[in-house]
Amino acid sequence: MRRIFSVQVCCVLLAIGILAFMATDLHAVGKKKGKLKQTFQESLVRCKDVAPPLSPCGIDPLGSGKVEIKKDGDVKVEVRGAKSEAAYDVDFRPLESAPDITLGTLSTDENGNGEFEEDPGFLPGTTLSGTMVLRRSLADQFVSGITVGE
Question: How confident is the model at residue 13 (pLDDT cuts 50, 70, 90)?
Fold first, then answer.
């Protein structure tokens, strides 16, 4: 019984050591090669559904949507169940009062589905803080955000 307990303790200590080594190694790689890069991925929500309310908001429908800024800086946006055959400006809105940066246009098909993927020219090492916005008819229709589950 003691022998089994000793083997279990050794296995646990070995596992903790391996995890500590992996964490140290990951941190070292980040230091040697620059900061660890992250991908930003967030859902799109209807502007008019955000609390507290934003304005000016449009009334376009949205089944689902997501936005992703990939490690290489490419921006990918997908919508499903939005307004059919519509064109949305894809904007990055900085948190400061700086103007929106228009990245391009997302067009939807007859089912309201559309995709956009572009390299907006964000420089490597750039740190961004803001939100993604899809605009149509001079109004924000969709913004990056979260919906708290029910």
Answer: very low
Same domain membership, residue 25 and residue 48: no
Cis peptide bond N-terminal to 56, omega within 30: yes
Q: What is the per-residue pLDDT across 60-69, written as a single tens digit (0 to 9) for each?
A: 999 999 999 8
**Would you put residue 126 in left (φ > 0), alpha (ψ -120 to 50) or beta?**
beta
Identify whether residues 76 and 103 lie together within a single domain: yes
Of the candidates 21, 36, 111, the residue with the CA atom closest to the CA atom of residue 71: 36
Residue 143 scores a pLDDT above 50: yes
150 belongs to a structural domain: no
Return the pLDDT at 125: 77
The answer to whether the CB of 58 falls within 8 A of the CB of 48 is yes
Whether residue 87 is found in the same domain as residue 128: yes
Q: Enter the DSSP assignment of 48.
A: G
Tell me if residue 145 falls in helix, strand or coil.
strand
Q: How much is the pTM? A: 0.73
Residue 7 lies in domain: 1-35
